What does this fold into?
Amino acid sequence: MKRQIIAGESSFARRVIPLAAVLLALLLPAGCGLEKPGTGENPAAGQPSASDPAVVSRPEAAVQPDRVQITETVFSDTTVTVSWNAVAEAEGYEISVERSRMGADAGSDTELSETAERSFTADFQGASLLRLQVRAWKTADGQRLYGEWSNFVEGEGPLPQGDFTYAELEKLEFTFASGAGAWSTELYVAADGSFTGLYHDADMGDTGEGYPNGTQYYCRFSGSFAPPVYVDEYTYAAPVRQLLTEEEPEQVEIIDGVRWISSVPYGLENAEEVLFYLPGKPVSELPEEYVSWCRYELFEEETLPFYGLYNQVDGYGFSSAQVVFDRDDLVKLFRETAQRSAEIDAAFERGDMDQSTMNSTAAERYYLWDGLLNRMWDYFKETLPEDEMKSLTAQQVKWIAEKEAAVKAAGAEVEGGSMQPLAEYGVAAEYTEARVREWLETYFA
It folds into this structure.
């Protein structure tokens, strides 16, 4: 907890200056060089309390109470207690307590209280910062007259705590992707905050001598996040403590007719701190940049249905999904995907959707099958023998090239029109569903 008391002025200055001002007021005509009360360094001095707006300004011949000096401050985890000197002729003391909050309800408010004692205890009440000051008052000619405020006493409250830990993320795969094309970044976070990841991008049309099967960009990386810091109920901040790549960028190698070029960890390369969003966070409270990257996963959602990761520096958003390595889970997921896909087909047959809705619904169907395809691929990486996985990888590279060519051709037929997304997503979904069913028959029969 931060503890700070700013030293006050000397007692000589406090007593002499008000007396001089009174003598000048008696000698000079009205308006000749005297500041009105409250127009000097402390605008509140000599003015009515905010808690008593009916009180008028001080009588000209009255001397305001001395400025309060805080003599002792006691801090605890939940309160700040201040004590001060006795001010001559003071009938009471007014205390101003300003509380500042952080997180989703960030802001501040000020509360005024009064006491006849010479000490006061203020509670943080969930605030992260508390600022407190005191002034004396007395009655003159039936009117309340205030002295100057004391200097501030400032204290930091206990940081709000949550129960989020990285262990909650162990079974998840975070994905950063555009939703179009073949590139994506996958990230896996361990219980201790360390992480590993892979960025990959395929350009099957970029061929040349020695690499007729196209070009692949990739980056294998690892690192660690510092312990998560509570921001609000559904948000935690995590500084990026370390980020390393296995290969230097721009290294080129040709393998089995494919040119491989090492790259950077796209999505995290400039990250200094990321935000983790927990399921249940209102979508309306998410940054627009994050929502734009996860727009299809958040389609018609009011609250976040998954854990999210947001790179604040570049405005990049990752969504998450459970990593499935169990055969029975994949079969179950296939049945759920096929059922939802059939519901989407039935909606198209009814013919009651406008073009925009048809485009977004076609995108949803594609991402359903593409998500299952990726889960199956993860399963193969963990279960297939190395030589069989190499063969499947080569087949997949060719399949991706065929799918992209078909999607491009379908879009070209209605290029620039409102139906272009519908045509492209429709073909992509057909190719991907067929691939999933082929793998199901081959590896899960």
Notes: The chain has six helices and 20 strands. The two ends are 63 Å apart (CA to CA).
